[in-house]
Amino acid sequence: MTRPALAIVTSILAASGCMVYGTSGGSGPDPVDTGYVVPNAAPYITFAEAGCYWDDYNRDDIWYFDADVDDADSPLDVVAVYADVYDSYSGAWVDGFDLYPTDDPYYWFSDWLGRSTYLDCYYGGYQVDITATDSFQAYDIVTIAPYTYNYY
Questions:
Q1: Which of 39, 58, 61, 81 has fewest C-beta within 10 Å?
Q2: pLDDT value at position 16?
Q3: Phi and psi torsions of 93, nearest 5°
Q4: CA atoms of 77 and 42, how far apart (whole Å)
Q5: C-alpha dihedral, 135 to 116 to 107 to 134, nearest 10°
Q6: Residue 10 has pLDDT above 90, yes or no
Q7: 100-151, pLDDT tens digit by residue?
Q8: Using alpha carbons only, what angle is made at residue 78 by residues 73 and 79, rounded to the nearest 5 degrees?
Q9: What domains appear along the chain, each with residue ranges and CATH number?
Q10: Are 108 and 142 in contact (CB under 8 A)?
């Protein structure tokens, strides 16, 4: 189409109330800023628990971390849940663990052999930060004390 013909068609469409988009290099319509931002709700942790117990089969302590996580956008919007363990006396980070989704979209869980961690089930001075993150990097954190042999 020639430029004068394109100008005539554009004038007719604009006069009829149609929206006309310019093109940038022939790659399609330019994006239109509507001023509307899609809101994102942060995930929230409704329950969290951590601790250790003895496992006869593995002949080792097992550390477990679990959390129930929801999100107003959908529990499927939650993309990561993890646990960071700190020494509550010194504030030093001790170890970190990923939690994994289960068949229940609200429940995340993991357990670890004691020999694969830096944690000691006889030490009662840990605190655990459970963090849930969604696809827009919004997050929620709860801090809990894990169940150990010296702390219930």
A1: 39
A2: 46
A3: -70, 135
A4: 9
A5: -10
A6: no
A7: 999 999 999 999 999 999 999 999 999 999 999 999 999 999 999 999 997 6
A8: 140
A9: 44-144 (2.60.40.10)
A10: no
The tokens for 15 are 């006069």
Angle at 53 between CA 91 and CA 56, to 5 degrees: 140
The alpha carbon of 45 is separated from its chain's Cα centroid by a whole number of angstroms, namely 11
First to last CA, the chain: 79
Output the DSSP codes for the chain: --HHHHHHHHHHHHHTT-----BSTTSSBPP---S-----PPPEEEEEEEEEEEETTTTEEEEEEEEEEE-TT-GGGEEEEEEEEEETTT--EEEEEEEEE-SSTTEEEEEEEGGGSS--TT---EEEEEEEEETTS-EEEEEEPPBBTTB-
